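Tokens in:
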């Protein structure tokens, strides 16, 4: 019986690892989707990602991706001040929205439902 429990624990740990890999692979798509909905600052994206997936999005993932989107013309940044702090809100440009729509259209409805179930 103890051997079965150990094998089951190993199986569960492998499934958790695979789930984590799937979520990490979806990070850019989820960020793009969130930006297509409304402007966000980096920390706001981290919080929304956590709500959607239960996983923490690392700053080392979010900020380079946002900078790349901006550098390549897919997003733009509007700086707002909150006291002494500057907060950068990112939005998709028309080019970014076209990219989002192209990516979205690549997923047929049934596959999209599977992905949404994974991140909930």
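Residues out:
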């Amino acid at each position: 019986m103890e051997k079965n429990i150990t094998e089951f624990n190993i199986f569960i740990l492998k499934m958790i690892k695979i789930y984590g890999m799937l979520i990490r692979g979806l990070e850019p798509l989820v960020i793009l989707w969130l930006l297509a909905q409304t402007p966000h600052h980096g920390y706001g994206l981290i919080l929304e990602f956590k709500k959607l997936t239960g996983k923490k999005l690392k700053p080392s993932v979010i900020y380079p991706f946002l900078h790349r989107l901006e550098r390549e013309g897919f997003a733009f940044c509007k700086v707002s001040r909150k006291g002494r702090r500057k907060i950068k809100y990112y939005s998709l440009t028309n080019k970014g929205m076209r990219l989002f729509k192209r990516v979205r259209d690549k997923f047929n409805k049934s596959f999209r439902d599977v992905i949404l179930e994974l991140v909930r």
